[in-house]
Design goal:
- The protein has 273 residues and is α+β, with helices and mostly antiparallel strands.
- Helix content is 16%, strand content 41%.
- The longest helix is centred in the C-terminal third of the chain and has 13 residues.
- The chain is globular.
Length: 273
């Protein structure tokens, strides 16, 4: 039997979304990586599998291109919120490994309540205790980062010109440093105006990406904690802008677009588990 999928993206960060709520689909590292392969599979930054949930309207499982399962993906959360908007009346509660989140589809796009950020070194996690607002570490010209967990782990470097950093080279070195036992998403940002940031992201298990919703959230929170910006900020990524707000009760609200690119199907036996 053909298995249907929907190809979606948020600012160019693209996903293969499989609705496995009615018919379960076993997913393994091998199968996820094969489906995500851009040359021999369907191709995507993340593979998303929707399953039934006892806690929310849907359970969202997220697999990177290397087949690793991860805790959170902001852009995919907007895509799932858009996909289920008609079914759920525009509002969807989503269970992830990083916690419960809430997506609301509006005329302006999709707003996702990403929850409360965490800052303790054990929550990032780091290999040993240190101040996560000013980590006393560096890699060549990148130093003094902020660490934030927004459902998944991020380290953020603020630099004069984010476009000038060779993140394709430095990203994998930082991602796999022993300081980060769960690996890390690497963000390089620069302030380009009042409450306005430019951001590039090396995504754990993916590489350079056109957009990263959790990266935008983590970077905005890091900039707010360092008093570089106010409580609402625009974050420009290569794929386009996101709006990030940090509410009075410490919840992160991310707003941006999501779109369907096309629909299709694949044969189960072509991608064995």
């Amino acid at each position: 039997m053909p298995i249907p999928f929907r190809k979606m993206h948020g600012l160019g960060n693209d996903f293969v979304v499989i609705d496995a709520r009615a018919t379960p689909l076993p997913m393994t590292t091998r199968r996820a990586a094969a489906l995500a392969d851009r040359y021999t599979g369907i191709g995507c930054d993340q593979l998303i599998v929707l399953e039934p949930s006892d806690q929310a309207d849907v359970r969202m499982r997220i697999f990177n291109t290397d087949g690793s399962e991860v805790e959170a993906c902001g852009n995919a959360s907007r895509a799932v919120g858009l996909l289920l908007a008609d079914e759920r009346g525009g509002s969807t509660r989503i269970e992830t490994l990083g916690g419960l989140i809430h997506a609301q589809a509006t005329a302006e796009g999709v707003t996702v309540d990403m929850g409360v950020p965490r800052f303790d070194w054990e929550d990032i996690p780091l290999a040993y205790a240190m101040d996560t607002l000013h980590l006393p570490v560096g890699w060549e010209d990148l130093n003094d980062p902020v660490a934030v967990n927004v459902g998944n782990p991020h380290v953020i470097f603020f630099v004069p010109d984010a476009d000038a950093i060779d993140l394709a080279r430095l990203g994998p070195l930082i991602e796999n440093d022993p300081l980060f036992p769960a690996r890390i998403n690497v963000n390089v940002a620069s302030l380009i105006g009042p409450d306005h940031l430019r951001l590039h992201v090396w995504e754990r298990g993916v590489g350079l990406t056109r957009a990263c919703g959790t990266g935008a959230c983590a970077t905005a929170i890091g900039a707010m904690r360092r008093k570089l910006v106010g409580r609402t900020v625009r974050v420009d990524l290569p794929g386009g802008p996101l709006s990030i707000a940090w509410t009075a009760d410490d919840r992160i609200l991310m707003t941006g677009p999501a779109q369907t690119s096309f629909v299709g199907s694949f044969v189960d036996a072509d991608y064995p588990a």
